[in-house]
Amino acid sequence: MENILDESKTRLVESAMKSIANEHLRLMELIPYGEWAALIPVITQAKRIFIMGAGRTGLMMKAAAMRFMHLGYEVHVVGETTSPAIGAGDVLIAGSGSGTTLGIVNAAETTKRVGAGLICFTTNPDSRLALLSDHVVRIPAAEKQGRDESISKQYAGSLFEQSLLLGLDALFQTLWELDGSPASELWKRHANME
Fold first, then answer.
1. What DSSP string describes 92-134?
2. Alpha-carbon distance 11 to 65, whole Å?
3. Closest CA to 95 of 48, 153, 135
4. CA count, 13 A, side-chain hemisphere, 174
5. What pTM value is reported for the model?
6. Model pLDDT, residue 150
7. pLDDT at site 87
8. Could you tell me the CATH superfamily of domain 2-180?
9. What is the DSSP letter of 94?
């Protein structure tokens, strides 16, 4: 009896994995890749890069911060105690599915006030965050509060968060390819106190 239950659970996990992968395959057909490519000169010309997101989106943004640091950029995660003031010549890269997260919108307003650049990743191109941004990348995933199962059967903003991570990794991969540095050079910047 236990083996039958284990097989049933195994099939459920496999089905969930395939469902999530299929959502990403559908989403990949809708991604505005030109919006992503337009970020390359903004990032490469920035004096410093500031990264911000809340909740699970914030974790995806922190993963990107690590990769940009590996490429040699000066990167700061907003909210960390060592993050300095943003200024002209810098860029804030913010992720918010709704584009309405108050702390992120407030940071965006500060960013614009001091003359720094602003990039946002969102599902909502009409949001306050998007309207403030110099560059908006729309990720056509379901919004956290919306349960549009034709887009995603996953809980809350999972598809947005996962797609954000995949897209940021693709952006990193592109920047790395354009940079031409060998992996051994990037590895020198990898944390050695873990």
1. EEEE-SSS--HHHHHHHHHHHHTT-EEEEEES-TTSHHHHH-S
2. 36
3. 135
4. 16
5. 0.89
6. 59
7. 98
8. Glucose-6-phosphate isomerase like protein; domain 1 (3.40.50.10490)
9. E
- Catalytic positions, written as ranges: 161
How far is residue 118's CA from residue 130's CA, in Å, rounded to a whole number?
Answer: 9
Q: What is the pLDDT of residues 80-120, one digit of tens each?
A: 999 999 999 999 999 999 999 999 999 999 999 999 999 99
pLDDT tens across 120-165, in order?
999 999 999 999 999 999 998 866 555 566 566 666 678 899 999 9
The three-state secondary structure class of 95 is strand
Residue pair 49/74 in contact by the 8 Å Cβ criterion: yes
Strand partners, 138: 122
> What residue ranges do the domains of the chain occupy?
2-180
Q: What is the pLDDT of residue 2?
A: 57
The two structure tokens encoding residue 71: 């490429």
Q: Measured between alpha carbons, how far is 15 from 154 in angstroms, rounded to an integer?
A: 13
Neighbours of 177 (CB within 10 A): 9
Residue with tokens 């993963």: 63
Distances (CA, A) of 94 to 10, 39, 83, 103, 104: 37, 13, 15, 11, 7
